[in-house]
Amino acid sequence: MPSYDSYFLMKSADAAEFARERLKLFPAGARLEHAEIGDGNLNYIFRVWDPQGGRSVVLKQAGGTARISDQFKVSTDRTRIEYEALRIENELAPGMVPATYGYDPVMNCCAMEDLSDHVIMRAGLLQRNRYPRFADHITTFMANTLLLTTDMVMDHKKKKALVGSFINPDLCEITEDLVYTEPFDDLRKRNDPFPPNREWLERRLYQDEALRLETAKLKLDFFNNAQSLVHGDLHTGSIFVRQDSTKVIDGEFSFYGPAGYDVGNVIANLVFAWANADTVMADPAARGAQTRWLEETLVEVVEGFKRKWKTLWRERVAESTARTPGFAEWYLWRVLSDSAGVTGLELCRRTVGIAHVKDLTSIESPPHRVRAERLCIDMARRCILERDRIVGGDDYLALLRWAAERHPRPA
Ligand code: SR1
Ligand code: MG
Fold this sequence. Notes:
Blueprint: H1 12-22, E1 33-36, E2 44-49, E3 56-61, H2 78-92, E4 100-104, E5 109-113, E6 119-120, H3 121-126, H4 134-147, H5 156-165, H6 169-181, H7 198-206, H8 209-224, E7 228-230, E8 239-242, E9 245-248, E10 255-257, H9 260-280, H10 284-316, H11 327-352, H12 358-361, H13 366-385, H14 393-406
Antiparallel strand pairs: 1-2, 2-3, 3-5, 4-5, 6-8, 7-10, 8-9
Helix pairs in contact: 4-10, 9-10, 9-11, 9-13, 10-14, 11-13, 13-14
Bound molecules: 5-S-methyl-5-thio-alpha-D-ribofuranose and magnesium ion.
Residues 41-42, 66, 68, 72, 174-175, 178, 233, 355 line the site of 5-S-methyl-5-thio-alpha-D-ribofuranose.
């Protein structure tokens, strides 16, 4: 039996024993079942359950390189960061993240609630499910975690201490490279465009100097703007859903950064779901119902976020200078502009870069995938270039409709 006194990458049997013997999550002698269930880019995820007692837990362990590629050397400290972020998020937005059961700094492993009764939102959307509570839940999560961790609300020294404990250089570097740099300059030659779109993407992304200038400005903001404790990877693969429940997972990218980073990720991933549904669904009535729900959700994500942000601002902001007339409006406008910019960045990087989304890659017919990708990219470009004017849900809807019309569905 391993002692768990020095780090090694566990198999699922080790994880079961670790949960029982080290974390004491099961009675001594419990006969546990176990499986490795991870399919993400970075970590190893184990489900451990006790068929007799009925309890089940999930363990997440970090390895020294990413699962997607050994090129990414990533500090195992990310598990501590995720664990601490989960505890803060559970305080600020109760019930919107899995409960935590323990963290072990030697094995770089944390234990949390098993959410097997939920599905990953991206998969659920690709099965054409709809989640009526999602917009309400995710806007509560974002408004609460993003505004309540700023200097506008927090004691400034406590906030600075949090900034320090969430310094996350390796994971930020992944984002700086994959989101802010390589979609617009394939300097490491690791982009992975869909071949029929390769030249079109090169012209649209690598050869447009005005676009590249704006992405450089956005990257500066990501480097420097320690505004809020952001989740840092809030796409639909990081969200578990049920009809009545939403749970945000996978917080290892958390750090103090621009609040708009999370909002833009949610918006962009709803656009991917829309592009898939509008391109792939053959039956007009079913397609209309799915795309309408996605449009309403997108609008409500933006408008609900603004509404909840403004309410919280009135109730919770303590910084005296924030009461200066015009400041509250200016501050929210900056967050919305960043959100629009990040929406564009996320749409670009998931299309051209190494870390794709199934919404696009699962489209089997080449002309259909070409169409879905092009509409995402044309919308993305305007989100980046015109971000200061994109302030409401209807602005996104207008851009989505404009891009879809430019690229009609293939017959
Ligand atoms: C090397 S990790 C690639 C991507 O997977 C994660 O989920 C993040 O989105 C990251 O950019
Ligand atoms: Mg993830």
